[in-house]
Amino acid sequence: MTSLRVEDVGNKWLPTKISLNAAVGECMVISGPSGVGKSLLLRAIADLDEHEGRVSFGDSLCSDLPVIDWRKNVGLLAADSAWWSEKVADHMPKISNEQLEKLGFGKEVMKWSVDRLSTGEKQRLAILRLLANKPSVLLLDEPTANLDPDSVQKVEELLLEYCRNNPAALIWVSHDMAQAKRIADKRYHFDEKGLNEVES
Amino acid sequence: MNMISLTALDLSITALLVVALAILSLKLQLGVTRQLIIAAIRTTVQLLLIGYILKLLFENVHLGYMAAISVIMLLFAGREVMARQTHPYKGLWGFGMGTISMFLSTFMVTLIALTVIINNDPWYTPQYAIPLLGMMLGNTMTGIALGLERLTQAAREQRKQIEARLMLGHSGKQAITDIRRQSMRYGMIPIINSMAAAGLVSLPGMMTGQILAGSPPLEAVKYQILIMFLIAAGTGFGTVIAVVLGSRRLFDERERLRLDRLRK
Predict the structure, then answer these.
(1) 3-state SS class at A99
(2) What is the pTM of this model?
């Protein structure tokens, strides 16, 4: 199985050097106290912050690849989606109508202004936007933290389905213990001492 | 030319007006009295000093002196650009970026004006070269300072949007393209506005000065138009260069947004 390998990744913000291995088709959930550096770890893996150590996917080392190719393959999703233009369509490349329908949107959503979307709608569209790159690894930084229960369920289904079918490796940061139990193939705890697997 | 020479007495009378203003602002507790007096003294000293330097340069025409004074003016302008930033770039870049952009645009435009248009002998005749360069630098400095300020402020404010694009695999250049365009526009607006309002709302300072000094109005106007065009070109090109350099500096070779390269 192809996997994302993180070896001794650290920088001045992370508490320790971190190593992990995430195989495609698997969902890894990371929990832990806030402020310890979970988001920073995901940022380092996506190469958004300077870091030491090695990050690779399959045979390709992050530092050997053009960073744009790396980020298209290793996609990071933030808790709050950010939008830089007025219309939804300005942010969305090549999305099929079926994909939109699966998430409960009609094709007219592309003409909407971002302002009229709810938080839940924004997050679902942000996921579509990210999945359009066909990433093999998804780094999910509390993707459902600000959503209502109905949207949480939709997002979980969408992401897990992508994980199994594409297949893709999911690294999912979550504070919600019930959610962690629901979705995780493997569970990890991240604190000042580092990243440790939780026996279930 | 009938020029009425000003005496020390004339200047003293106008200085009294400033003193009166200082007394009024003291009474009103505006808290600017000190600054006002210091600024008035600085104006007097600095202008007298430059007057003597110009006199000296006019009497000793030499390319070396001209080069030296140009570089000094450029360095002061570069420092001023940096001083006007809320979050200037750290290290040499803070000073270097504005200075390089000003050098490329103002020196080139001034050189063209002196050699092709004014075409005096020698081309670096200080009477033309120094005022031209001074006006170019002064205006370009404002444009560059505004453009860079807009760029760095917007990058800080829109960090989330920029990084969201980077996360999706956009390049830094793509991610900052809107902000970049905005910042360039921002730097150019003042000169566009002053060209549009020239003559209707304001009589430009240079032209007014020439007329006061006795030049025929139409000659003064022609010079003013020339200067306006030169300033527009210098400011525009300078702002574009500075914003391009500045926006590149905001990203590193791995397309990461590097706000840590700006001072807090």
Answers:
(1) helix
(2) 0.89
CA distance A58 to A23: 10
A1 — pLDDT class (breaks 50, 70, 90): confident
Q: Which of A71, A81, A141 to mutate to test the interface with B (most CBs of B within 10 A)?
A: A71
How big is the A-B interface in CB pairs under 8 Å? 53
- The answer to whether A190 and A28 are in contact (CB under 8 A) is no
Point out the least confidently predicted range of A145-154, A186-195, B236-245. A145-154
- The answer to whether the CB of A53 falls within 8 A of the CB of A5 is no
Q: In what order do the strands lie in the sheet with A52-57?
A: A18-23, A3-10, A52-57, A60-61
Is the ipTM here above 0.85?
A: yes
- Of A97, A91, A138, A143, nearest to A117 by C-alpha is A91
Q: Does B170 touch chain A (CB under 8 A)?
A: yes
State how far residue B244 is from chain A, nearest Cα, in angstroms: 20
> Any CB–CB contact under 8 A between B181 and chain A?
no
- Mapping DSSP onto H, E and C, the string for chain B reads CCCCCCCHHHHHHHHHHHHHHHHHHHHCCCCCHHHHHHHHHHHHHHHHHHHHHHHHHHHCCCHHHHHHHHHHHHHHHHHHHHHCCCCCECCHHHHHHHHHHHHHHHHHHHHHHHHHHHCCCCCCCHHHHHHHHHHHHHHHHHHHHHHHHHHHHHHHHCHHHHHHHHHCCCCHHHHCHHHHHHHHHHHHHHHHHHHHHECCCECCHHHHHHHHCCCCHHHHHHHHHHHHHHHHHHHHHHHHHHHHHHHHHCECCCCCECHHHECC
Contact A80, A29 (CB under 8 A): no
pLDDT band at B78 (very low <50, low <70, confident <90, very high): very high
Averaged pLDDT, A72-96: 91
